[in-house]
């Protein structure tokens, strides 16, 4: 009885292992890629919220500290422009890194296969 169970479960495990190996490329480029893209989108949305870039752009012509004289408005405008420039550059860096992660995700299996075949040659 024990050998029948052993054979049954060995065949079942081997079948699942073969299915997982064959299903892996399909998952990597379908569901896995969608998960990565959704994760990157959420990451970029959270970075935009933490940088508050849209808030700075929306309030560019409003004076800071309620100083409505022309000096206060001029200083506020240029300070906000500088903040928008630096925050936009920071957001651009996060965007480039996120796109690099997606590109890395899509090219990693091909790179691994290339390296494996390179070792055999």
From TrEMBL:
Transmembrane helix recorded as keyword: yes
Domain of life: Bacteria
Name listed for the protein in its UniProt record: Uncharacterized protein
Entry keywords, A to Z: Membrane, Transmembrane, Transmembrane helix
Regions that span the bilayer: 6-29, 68-86, 92-114
């Amino acid at each position: 009885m024990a050998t029948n169970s052993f054979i049954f479960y060995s065949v079942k495990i081997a079948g699942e292992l073969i299915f997982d190996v064959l299903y892996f490329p399909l998952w990597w480029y379908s569901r896995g890629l969608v998960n990565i893209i959704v994760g990157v989108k959420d990451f970029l949305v959270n970075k935009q919220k933490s940088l508050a870039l849209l808030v700075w752009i929306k309030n560019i012509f409003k004076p800071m500290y309620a100083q409505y004289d022309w000096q206060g408005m001029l200083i506020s405008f240029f300070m906000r422009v500088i903040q928008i420039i630096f925050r936009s550059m920071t957001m651009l860096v996060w965007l480039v890194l996120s796109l690099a992660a997606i590109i890395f995700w899509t090219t990693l299996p091909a790179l691994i296969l290339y390296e494996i075949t390179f070792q055999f040659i």
